[in-house]
Write a structure and sequence with these properties.
The chain is an alpha/beta fold. The protein has one domain: 3-Layer(aba) Sandwich (Rossmann fold). The strands form three sheets. A seven-stranded mixed beta sheet has the order 5-2-1-6-7-11-10, with helices on both faces. A two-stranded antiparallel sheet has the order 3-4. A two-stranded parallel ribbon has the order 8-9. 44% of the residues are buried. It comes from Streptomyces stramineus.
């Protein structure tokens, strides 16, 4: 059975971890959550308050990481998912995150990312010449990385499927699952 890797950390957007995790399990894939260390992760919920100029952040669910990034062998996985939230700010500095993700792109394996995950991908050079969605405030990061920001609910560019935020989940996961069915089909 093909395995999918969700790469995240503390302060990841709760819905952007849990929705793909459950959706991919429902589809029949085995899913591992990788983080800088194996521990109980603390996710957050970003929400909107009418009097705020930006989103607010509240504590979300806790969930255990299955594997440390240092122990991830990309060859063991058919695809990767990178949730948003604040975790990508810190993941982008992790050498094992860089090793794992650049391997997925080099092998042309499916990669789904959403929201602020684009800030973790931008320094790796994998967005150059590519179209990608992200949280609109990340558009400058995408453009400085040589990518084209697209304000849409699901953007497919080769092996990459991206979205703006958790409200895009249905379209984002529908497009990603379609790509997985082509490139990492389940044996039924």
């Amino acid at each position: 059975m093909p395995k999918i890797l969700i790469i995240t950390g503390d302060a990841a957007e709760d819905l952007e971890v849990m929705y793909p995790y459950q959706r991919l399990l429902e589809e029949g894939y085995e899913v591992d959550i990788a983080a800088p260390t194996v521990k109980q992760l603390q996710f957050v919920v970003h929400d909107f308050v009418s009097s705020f100029d930006t989103y607010t952040e509240k504590p979300g669910h806790c969930w255990p990481a299955d594997v440390a990034l240092a122990d991830v062998h990309p060859a063991d996985y058919a695809a990767a998912v990178i949730p948003g939230g604040r975790a990508p700010e810190f993941l982008r500095m992790n050498p094992d995150f860089r090793r794992v993700i650049t391997s997925f792109f080099a092998e042309n394996k499916p990669v789904a990312h959403i929201c602020h995950a684009a800030v973790a991908l931008a320094p790796l050079g994998v967005l150059e010449g590519r179209r990608t969605a992200a949280w609109p405030a990340c558009a400058p990061d995408v453009e400085m990385a040589g990518g084209t920001f697209v304000d849409a609910e699901a953007v497919v560019d080769g092996n990459m499927v991206s979205a703006r935020a958790w409200n895009d989940h249905p379209a984002w996961m529908r497009a990603f699952v379609e790509l997985l069915r082509e490139r990492a089909p389940l044996k039924r």
